[in-house]
Design goal:
Keywords: NAD, Oxidoreductase. The chain is an alpha/beta fold. The protein has 16 helices and 21 strands. It has two domains: 3-253 and 458-483, Aldehyde Dehydrogenase, Chain A, domain 1, CATH 3.40.605.10; 257-442, Aldehyde Dehydrogenase, Chain A, domain 2 (3-Layer(aba) Sandwich). It is 38% helix and 22% strand. The protein binds nicotinamide-adenine-dinucleotide and (2Z,4E)-2-hydroxy-6-oxohexa-2,4-dienoic acid. (2Z,4E)-2-hydroxy-6-oxohexa-2,4-dienoic acid (2VS) binds at residues 153-154, 158, 161, 252, 285-287, 448, 454.
Length: 485
């Protein structure tokens, strides 16, 4: 049985207590993991601090970019290892990990290497009424030791989305991957060693959230900034933990995202896109559309076509190439999703398809699969329309006018992503800016350009990452004002 340990100051360090890393496809134990104690988190933060004062701190942006390209190559060299580790931890289909998670991890390092090389700085020529003149210019410095806490749904993708810009900016990091998916962050440590990343620049502490490595890290006085992706409530706890030392935070949190489908959409392309938007990664993507609003004229046709799509998913073993939907991440998460399925029925939903657990007659019956599920008929005030479920499920409701669609889409305390499906370009331009969300896609979903701002409003987060926005979070700007006259 494989044992996964924390990685501190360039060494794998076992913790005293162990916990199981479960494969959600059949409930088997994929690996054992040792938990980092408070002392080990202290050591990781100290190792990161030390690295900032060593050769890493002296390397310029070009030198760091070269290291980031090597990390990207290192991930690609071990492509199959990363895919297998991610599939074993998450149960996601091999095809998905191969086309999304692992390629994006390498892309994250390449893009931020490119961005740091071309990033400019601000400068102003200042003229005061009394005749004095000055040149103001800004320099970018690392923020220091960055604490990175990440979730289980896209483990390597979301971890590297933060590690890459943090390293590009010259920081040292201590990462706390989800206890559900510890493998790829650990494997990345080996890539870091091979790429010549100095000891202490990348540290991993394994464990849980409250009263464990997660809390020890975010409340640590030696951590200069915290970046977190996960549930909104966890974000609130982390914010409280960061308050005493006034750490800057960047939060990418939950969503209850709307899709708005107009009758003039390209119907087949919309069904294909919406099938991903609802069911990709078993609906466990923060950007997934759980609220789907469809213009009444095409409502029945849309529901029927999306239902056909739901039927077409192959809930196979994750390592089978044909598998298109895996299990949910854990028993606990499946219980949560199933409790929402029960609640939807109590709230008066019509179950169009799904709503339960599939049976297989093999080991997958001990895994955490659920059926792809579509509901209709709920009131807008229903909890299943308001709360994030995070499973392969959506509620579809009709609308009659553009104004009504915008109001329905925006009636949420979240605000991460929205999608609009229409062939009318003017309508797209009119409606898109009205969406109360950080990201609005038109005739597509989860189409990413890593230079663009990514983040949410309301309960969906604080701040934006991506391109220059990441550089601004992961660095301190020092403005220098020189009197010239
Ligand atoms: N907005 C985004 O970009 C985005 C991306 C992916 C997932 N998510 C959200 O993440 C959630 C699913 O992921 P999850 O269940 O792993 O989230 P989670 O909040 O339960 O856990 C995320 C991480 O936080 C740690 N943690 C938990 N409590 C903590 C505490 N008190 N202090 C420090 N660390 C703590 C966990 O151990 C884990 O590593 C969903 O709500 C989803 O919408 C958002
Ligand atoms: O589950 C959430 C997905 C987040 C995606 C990103 O952060 C990204 O594509 O950069």
């Amino acid at each position: 049985m494989k044992s996964l340990h924390s990685y501190i100051g360039g060494r794998f360090v076992p913790g005293k207590r162990g916990f199981a890393d479960i494969n959600p496809a059949d409930g088997s134990v994929a690996a054992t993991v040792t938990e980092a104690s408070a002392e080990m988190v202290d050591e990781a933060v100290a190792a990161a601090r030390k690295a900032l004062h060593g050769e890493w701190g002296k390397l310029g942006a070009r030198g760091r970019a070269t290291v980031l390209y090597k990390i990207a190559e290192g991930i690609e060299k071990r492509f199959d290892c990363f895919v297998q580790a991610e599939v074993a931890d998450t149960g996601k289909p091999l095809s998905l990990a191969s086309r999304l998670d692992v390629p994006r991890a390498a892309a994250n390092f390449r893009v931020f290497a490119d961005v740091i090389k071309i990033a400019g700085l601000e400068a102003f020529e200042t003229e005061l009424p009394d005749g004095r003149r000055a040149l103001n210019y800004t320099v970018r410095k690392p923020i220091g030791v960055v604490g990175i806490v990440t979730p289980w749904n896209l483990p390597l993708l979301l971890l590297t989305w933060k590690v890459a810009p943090a390293l590009a900016c010259g920081n040292a990091v201590v990462v706390k991957p989800s206890e559900e998916t510890p493998a790829t962050a650990t494997l990345l440590a080996e890539v870091m060693q091979e790429a010549g990343v100095p000891d202490g620049v990348y540290n991993v502490v394994h464990g849980f959230g409250p009263n464990s490595a997660g809390e020890f890290l975010v409340s640590h006085p030696g951590v200069n900034a915290v970046t977190f992706t996960g549930e909104s409530q966890t974000g609130a706890s982390i914010m409280r933990a960061c308050a005493p030392t006034v750490k800057p935070v960047s939060f990418e949190l939950g969503g209850k995202n709307a899709a708005v489908i107009f009758a003039d959409c390209d119907f087949d392309a919309t069904i294909a896109g919406m099938s991903d938007a609802v069911f990709l990664n078993t609906g466990q993507v923060c950007l997934c559309a759980e609220r789907v609003y469809v213009e009444r004229r095409i409502f029945d046709r849309f529901v029927a076509a999306l239902t056909e799509r739901a039927k077409s998913y192959d809930l196979g073993w994750p390592m089978e190439p044909a598998t298109s939907m895996g299990p949910l991440i854990s028993k606990v998460h499946r219980e949560k999703v199933l409790s929402y399925f029960d609640l939807a029925r109590e709230e008066g939903a019509t179950v169009v398809i799904g709503g339960g657990v599939p049976t297989f007659g093999d080991g997958r019956d001990s895994g955490f699969y659920v059926q792809p599920t579509i509901f209709t008929g709920l009131k807008e005030s229903a909890r299943c329309v308001k709360e994030e479920i995070f499973g392969p499920v959506c509620h579809v409701a009709p609308f009659d006018s553009e104004e009504e669609a915008v109001a329905l889409a925006n009636d949420t305390r979240y605000g991460l992503a929205a999608s609009i499906w229409t062939s009318d370009l003017q309508r797209a331009h009119r409606v898109a800016p009205q969406m109360n969300a950080g990201i609005t896609w038109v005739n597509c979903w989860f189409l990413r350009d890593l230079r663009t701002p990514f983040g949410g409003v309301g309960l969906s987060g604080i701040g934006r990452e991506g391109g220059m926005h990441s550089l601004n979070f992961y660095s301190e700007l020092n403005n220098i004002c020189i009197r010239t006259e």
